[in-house]
Amino acid sequence: IGWKGAMSRYARLVDTHIAVIDSGFAKDHDELRNRHLKTISEKDGISGYDDDGNGYIDDEEGWDFIDNDNDPYDFRGNGTQVSGIISSNKDGVGIQGISPDAYIKPLRVLNRDGTGSTSKLTEALEYIYALPSFRILNVSLGSASYDLLLEETINVFEKENRVLIVCAAGNGGSDYIGDDNDQMPFYPSNYDSRSIISVGAIDQSGDLCDFSN
After folding, report:
1. Which residues pair with 64 in a beta bridge?
2. Distance CA 44, CA 42 (A)
3. What is the mean pLDDT of the chain?
4. Is the pTM of this model over 0.90?
5. CA atoms of 98 and 58, how far apart (whole Å)
6. Half-sphere CA count of 204, side-chain side, radius 13 A
7. Which residues have a Cβ under 8 Å from the Cβ of 98 and sit 6 or more positions away?
8. Helices (DSSP H) in the chain: which residue ranges?
């Protein structure tokens, strides 16, 4: 992806806030310990009180839309893996995240089995909509089911040119061979929105993986 060349030209202007809408976030993972974005008004506020007035009490660390609480811990692993690719610490251990000044706000919408619902995803998008500091959302999930409410929610972001929504193109079907999304749509990556960038998986040579749509 030309990452080394990009880093040679990179200069930090501001910290980047990225909402990872996925299976959660392992906040005790050594590679991510300093990459977790906290909500300061809740961190320094009154316990049991909605200090920032967004309708979610004590959401300092993000929100768990599956268990409806303020601890979006990852019991599946995918959200933590995605977060690590984005911004894991540069410490010579494990992998190096591609965005050194990115901080993650985890929103858990997938359960322990890795499944979820469009209603939970829509709730998470609405949560982020009220936080104007977020310009990038990562949504590494989806299904073949079209949902009008989800599409309309995404279209609100597009109208205001608010955010880039990075969506997974998907990983084929039961045959483990990637499909053509133009023939077999995978949502939300297939919604017709200028806010969405649909992302497939590549191997170490930069070629599309066999399993990737």
Report:
1. 69, 108
2. 5
3. 93
4. yes
5. 30
6. 0
7. 1, 3, 85, 86, 87
8. 3-9, 40-43, 78-87, 118-129, 148-159
